[in-house]
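User: I'll paste a sequence; please echo it back and then give the predicted structure.

Assistant: Echoing your sequence first, then the prediction.
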Amino acid sequence: MTASRAKVAVLISGRGSNMTALVEAARAADCPYEVALVLSNKAEAEGLTLAAEAGIATLAIPSKPYGADREAHERAVDAALREAGIEVVALAGYMRILTPFLVEAWAGRMINIHPSLLPKYPGLDTHRRAIEAGDAEAGCTVHLVTVGVDEGPIVDQARVPIEAGDTPETLAARVLIAEHQLYPAALAKLVAG
């Protein structure tokens, strides 16, 4: 075990299933990171409760009071991350398109997980798009966050076969299982250098 593990913040907007996978992986003695903070733009996010129950510091910085001023909201998020001594940020279902301010402030130290084999299907509705295209496989990608949506350098990917009769929902359920395995490993890889 390393003497000092990297302090990670996980940013969520909802139930926090990928956040939970990161937290569980961090319990391993040889994990190079610890989840030191779970932050959400929604005070009612289920993941905040799960993180608190796991003994992790949580913080909600609702985006609504900031209206259309996304950068002002991100400045508050950035200040909270720095105050907590965070070294790496993992987006896990954080449903906000980030401004250049936050992306550049954490360049090379912010990752995201996306439910497609990027560069295919950035954005939303990835499973339906993969099925409609007749793809043989789908999957998920962990990538560094850059200003372009889902365009950053790929850290790692996991492939999931598309089966006959798959719906976007059935495919999403299988891809989510792959996400929960891929994300902790990719985060550890990034942190370990």
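The chain has a mean pLDDT of 96. The longest helix spans residues 168-192.
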